[in-house]
Design goal:
Radius of gyration: 17 Å
Order of helices and strands: EHHEEEEEHHHEEEE
Strand content: 25-35%
Number of helices: 5
Shape: globular
Helix content: 25-40%
Strand order of the largest sheet: 6-10-9-8-7
Number of strands: 10
């Protein structure tokens, strides 16, 4: 399986990436503490790692000590910023950017070969399954398709409010270039009906990223 892009190539240079783990969780604000109060120890650790990674990404953009409460299931990023947080066993990464540079970000991290054959029909369209069969890496490519759809959803949902099913997004992958194109069949504005993303395989993990550039005034 080709490695795809490097992590540093997932997004435009204006996007900051940061990673956190259980040894570097930092301290939550009182608001954040209240939101995770009563959660399982594992969920609290994931939440703390996610907020630590998000604060580090924002600090790299000149916004230190950010507080990120939740709105629904999403973090509320500081005014003027957008971002995305993702975690899986062994990895937690956040991406952040200024709204003047990027309109929305979708980031997803997964354990390689997570998506087993019994889930292929649920996750993948017939065209995607045909491509998987031709590629000869069914569990890795299925996980790549799953992750690309997750990143696409996380990028698109804050902009449109759309709740996409797996079948609403069809992904075409260029394994050598480390890129993919996600075509959204559900209702979406013309400028958001096809999103371009990148992916990177690292040891036991896969990262996918999608960013919508900010639209400039004419």
């Amino acid at each position: 399986m080709p490695a795809g892009a490097k992590r540093s190539e997932l997004f435009p240079p204006s996007v900051a990436l940061a990673e956190a783990d259980a040894s570097d969780l930092g301290v939550l604000s009182p608001v954040e503490e209240e939101e995770v109060k009563g959660a399982t120890p594992r969920r609290q650790e994931e939440f703390r790692a996610g907020r630590a990674a998000a604060r580090a990404a924002l600090a790299a953009l000149g916004y230190p000590d950010a507080v990120l409460p939740r709105v629904g299931r999403r973090p509320l990023w500081p005014s003027g910023f957008v971002g995305s947080i993702s975690h899986c066993p062994g990895l937690c990464v956040a991406a952040a950017a200024r709204e003047r540079d990027v309109e929305a970000i979708g980031l997803d991290v997964e354990v390689r070969r997570r998506v087993r054959p019994r889930l292929h029909d649920k996750v993948c369209t017939p065209a995607e399954q045909a491509w998987m069969a031709a590629s000869g890496h069914s569990e890795e490519t299925a996980t790549l398709l799953f992750s690309a759809k997750e990143a696409t959803y996380k990028c698109l949902n804050p902009l449109t409010g759309a709740r996409l099913a797996f079948g609403d997004v069809e992904v075409a992958v260029d394994l050598e270039a480390g890129t993919f194109v996600a075509a959204i069949s559900a209702a979406a504005p013309p400028n958001l009906s096809r999103l371009v993303g990148r992916f990177a395989f690292e040891d036991d993990h896969l990262l996918t990223g999608v960013a919508v550039p900010a639209r400039r005034a004419p």
